């Protein structure tokens, strides 16, 4: 063995042992929760409640919790009836509403009659309701129907309103729909 060899082996040993003897962790970039203050479970401070009135990000508080009439009058659907909004409304309706209200809103969802049959969304009442009243029911619930405000965002609730209108017009086309249908089928 030459001196060069001995030196190389020694250097390798130093390197290897250096690797295994980390007494100090390396430099910590953004330690996040490594050094979190420890609380005993259930002790004061460990389950601190948010400040009163705190709302989650992007949560829009509902302005008329006790006033459906005002909701009907004052709330306007912020979205235009575009095909992407209708697709979004359809997707959400099919997740959150269809189980009770059925594919066309007629109250024939597949958990009925285990769950009491809801009234039809095709009724004259709901067809002539302003958008804000449908939005109100989704936001606040109504009798047996729970509120969907925590599961369906405000934007998605408005998209669902557009989709319900489309379901209604598919059963009760207005003159605009009839004209469009005739035009599309005149070629
Ligand atoms: C668990 C079953 C269930 C689900 C899910 C459900 N609903 Fe309902 N819904 C009902 C029942 C039951 C009623 C009737 C409540 C009552 O007696 O006033 C109702 C009432 C309504 C009404 C009022 C109809 C009227 O004539 O007064 C609207 C509008 C409505 N639901 C829309 C929706 C929408 C939109 C969704 C999805 C976000 C939804 N519901 C999800 C059960 C449900």
What would a concise description of this structure say?
Helices cover about 45% and strands about 0% of the residues. It has about 190 residues and is mostly helical.
Structural class: mainly alpha
Q: The biggest beta sheet, please?
A: none
Using only C-alpha atoms, the radius of gyration works out to 30 Å
CATH-level-2 architecture of the domain at 80-173: Orthogonal Bundle
Order of SSEs: HHHHHHHH
* Molecules bound to protein: heme C
Gross morphology: elongated
Can you count the beta strands?
Answer: 0
Oligomer: single chain
- Give the CA-CA distance, first to last residue: 95 Å
- Residue stretches low in confidence (pLDDT < 50, at least 5 long) are none
The CATH superfamily of the domain at 80-173 turns out to be Cytochrome c-like domain
Helix content: 40-55%
Overall average residue pLDDT: 87
Written overview of the protein:
- This protein has a domain at 80-173: Cytochrome Bc1 Complex, Chain D, domain 2 (Orthogonal Bundle), CATH 1.10.760.
- Helices cover 46% and strands 0% of the residues.
- The protein is built from 8 helices and no strands.
- Helix 6 (131-140) crosses helix 7.
- The mean pLDDT is 87.
- Heme C binds at residues 96-97, 99-101, 115-116, 118-119, 121, 123, 125-126, 134, 137-138, 142-145, 148, 152, 160.
What would the keywords be for this entry?
0% strand; 187 residues; Cytochrome Bc1 Complex, Chain D, domain 2; binds heme C; mainly alpha; 8 helices
